[in-house]
Inverse folding.
């Protein structure tokens, strides 16, 4: 039985990805032990599904399409830099999301409910809108990275504005060089 590693996401325009890469480049100047997200892989995750039977793609698409129908487009801004779970022991470095965040959260809920009806019921993480820039592999250099992020954040206003008018089901193939993302389906809002 063929399996695919899947997630629902909001894809970003290339100009925003370039701006995020520029921000990431300033953070990379610190010799911290971080696995940085590659520029072409930047996205806003709505729901990570994990290993899924390939035969379920159509069913997932139909369920989510029905659930999000009529949601309507909305706008988000990427701004700020932060860390999960926090700056003392950073595991994830992120860019913040603001703007019509309530609509983003409602869209997440609609996707969550649709996939839950198909058995994807992992609610282990509270939804916190963000864009992952990188993940630490160890704490080496993390204090310097946090300090650098604070300096950059002082002068950082808005990284970019995004008009969200569709979501995508993406397959993530893990390789030694990093994940390869393939968009399987895009659904308009």
């Amino acid at each position: 039985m063929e399996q695919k590693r899947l997630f629902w996401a909001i894809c970003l325009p290339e100009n925003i990805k370039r701006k995020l890469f520029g921000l990431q480049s300033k953070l990379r100047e610190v010799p911290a032990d971080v696995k940085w997200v590659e520029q072409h892989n930047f996205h806003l995750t709505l729901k990570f599904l994990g290993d899924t039977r390939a035969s379920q793609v159509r069913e997932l698409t139909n369920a989510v399409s029905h659930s999000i129908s009529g949601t309507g487009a909305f706008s988000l801004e990427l701004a700020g830099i932060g860390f999960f779970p926090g700056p003392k022991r950073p595991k994830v470095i992120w860019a913040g999301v603001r703007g019509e965040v309530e609509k983003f959260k409602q869209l997440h809920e609609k996707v969550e409910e649709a996939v839950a009806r198909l058995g994807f019921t992992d609610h282990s993480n509270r939804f916190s809108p963000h864009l992952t820039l990188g993940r630490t592999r160890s704490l080496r250099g993390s204090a310097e990275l946090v300090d650098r992020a604070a300096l950059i954040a002082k002068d950082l206003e808005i990284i970019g504005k995004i008009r969200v008018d569709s979501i995508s089901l993406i397959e993530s193939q893990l390789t030694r060089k990093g994940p390869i993302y393939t968009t399987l389906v895009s659904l308009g809002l």
In short: The radius of gyration is 17 Å. Helices lie at 14-28, 57-68, 101-116, 142-155. The chain has a mean pLDDT of 95.
